[in-house]
Amino acid sequence: MYLPFFFVLTLLVSLHSATAGDYCVADLKQPEGPSGYSCKTPAKVTVDDFVFHGLATVGNTSNIIKAAVTPAFSAQFPGVNGLGLSIARLDIAAGGVIPMHTHPGGSEVLVVIQGCIKAGFIDSANDVYVKTLNRGDVMVFPQGLLHFQINAGKYPAIAFVSFSSPSPGLQITDFAFFANGLPTELVTGTTFIPGDVVKKLKAVLGGKN
């Protein structure tokens, strides 16, 4: 017995709707808002939206911090949009550092893949938690708290970090103070750092006095 045409059509529409509701692949042609990107039309979604190849590439550490972050956030990896997670790769050369920073939008889990990394964070009570991590060690950094990673060995270190957000955000404290046009007197007045030191740091990081 053949099923009525309208029943088959309704079933197909229901299955399509269920599939489309499983994910929200980022439409990178649209601006990102507080809740993420708009969803790409399901008919335009491909398997490549759910695959990211960038973490196999060594980051360029020839910079002032001797470190590199390769993100696989929703802007680079559309398939994680709306899923509450993302990942990134850290490359830290000998003597390198990921400076004190925060991720306002998500907590972080770090897994050391190669080398030795000293990592830590400061909680809202100003208690400090620091640990030297070796290959296979894992450390968590709660959302919004200041934290850092330093290469504690003589050779390049690699780590993978996952986040509880597809767009966790990033604010590096040094850059926030010294890599912009915030007047020297305001930096001095709010941090108690002498003006001559502020000016030197601004010169190093490209800020304006």
Essential attributes:
single chain; 209 residues; alpha+beta; Jelly Rolls; 5-stranded antiparallel beta sheet; globular
SSE map:
Blueprint: H1 5-20, E1 67-72, E2 86-92, E3 97-102, E4 108-114, E5 117-122, E6 128-133, E7 138-141, E8 146-151, E9 157-163, E10 171-172, H2 173-178, H3 184-191, H4 195-205
Antiparallel strand pairs: 1-2, 2-9, 3-8, 3-10, 4-7, 4-9, 5-6, 5-8
Largest sheet: 5 strands, antiparallel
Q: Output the CATH topology of the largest domain.
A: Jelly Rolls
Largest beta sheet: what is the strand line-up?
1-2-9-4-7
Could you tell me the mean pLDDT? 91
CATH class of the largest domain, anyone?
Mainly Beta
Number of domains: 2
Unreliable parts: 6-19
Number of strands: 10
Number of helices: 4
Order of helices and strands: HEEEEEEEEEEHHH
Q: What would you report as the Rg, rounded to the nearest angstrom?
A: 22 Å
| Helix coverage percent | 10-25%
CATH A-level architecture of the largest domain? Sandwich
Query: Kindly, what is the distance between the CA atoms of the first and last residues, rounded to a whole number of angstroms?
Result: 82 Å
Structural summary, described in words:
This is Germin-like protein. One of its GO terms (molecular function) is manganese ion binding. This protein has 209 residues and is of the alpha+beta class. It has two domains: 47-169, Jelly Rolls, CATH 2.60.120.10; 171-209, no CATH class. 20% of the residues lie in helices and 27% in strands. The protein is built from four helices and ten strands, in the order αββββββββββααα. The strands form two sheets. A five-stranded antiparallel β-sheet has the order 1-2-9-4-7, with no helix packed on it. The protein has a five-stranded antiparallel β-sheet with strand order 6-5-8-3-10. It starts with a helix and ends with a helix. 27% of the residues are buried. The model is unreliable at 6-19 (pLDDT under 50).
